Predict the structure.
Amino acid sequence: MDPSSRLGLVLSGGGARGAYEAGVLAFLREGLAPDLRRAPLFDVVSGTSVGAIHTCFVAATAHAPQDQGERLLSLWRGLAAGDVFAGLEDLLPSLVKRVMRGARGCRRPTGPTVLDGLLTEGNAVERLVRDEIPWPRIAANLEAGHLSAVAVSATEILTGRTRVFVQQARDQSLPPWVRNTNVGASAAVLGPEHALASAAVPLLFESVELDGTRMCDGGLRQNTPLSPAVRLGATRLLVVQLGRSLAIPDGAARSPARLRAYTGVPYLVGKLMNAVFLDHVDNDLDRLRQVNSLLDLGTEAFGDDFLARINAAAARTRRAPYRRIDELTISPSRDLGMMASRCARSDAYAREARPLLMRLFELLLPAHDPRDDEEVEADLLSYLLFSPTYIQALMELGYEDARRRRDALERFVAVGGDPA
């Protein structure tokens, strides 16, 4: 691998929205030029939440790129709602028992009992992570040079800090990792617990103990982990973004359907989850582009040695040198919350969903009047709707959005050229 031109893959979180990532990754293995789709492609892979599961899968199957796409799509097709939410009939009594157990624990001098997620043992996500990812192959692929580093991020519950778990080949050491007191890194041999911790949405999935502390969803603080990929040597980043919302015209924003939705708790919680889990990527990408722009302007104004001079001046206070990082972002061309809303009201979903699950998800839909001529996005539901219909639609959308960018992807992946 050329250390001056390392390609990084950055995958973010979003629950059921992760099926979009699977569609994009499938296109990379089926739709690019043969010499590209048969190659390992990525030097560094970094992920958070559901993106951490995909990250580990990509790293563990890097030796067999020709199988990655179809295998990943098949895994997602198996995540039917009835499996992910197995035991939902016991949801209310389970919730009461857990809350009461936690309340009793808070009064004990030995400390509170952990209030785990409602979906704990045996759910389809946990089975996929434990059984379908060949974990020993991550180390083997690193040693074989199929990739150079793998990183997954999780959140420490007690401190709120982000912990980045990094696996590299045995002869590699963890690079300097100084950013701020809220982010730390640890060398690790990645296993199911790391992926499950990163994907453990609070209150829904069980938190995981790693290194003596309880961990949950890494997307709470760092949903799209650009920084780990850069610190591990990536000079080009392929970013799959799950949170892009399409602009709503002012007139449509004040429509009767939207005014009814604004007053509903599901709509407000969905927007809050977008802010927590999805909006980080825009800030990270903006910051990356600003640095690139400053470096380009500096080179134009002061000459080709500008970058070397500024790094020499910054060496006294900055461990990592400044670098220009090229990026290509694939993001949804349709609003995923709107897709979830339409799916949950469709005849296809009514045929495949269990009655209790349908009643629960109806509570998460924005208020809707049959006379409305428009649908309102169900952002909250878009994270939870592990419905075959919705998952298939997301995978097809990811595949098609990547296909539309085929020429840019081939240029970017092959030689790191300008993706524009």
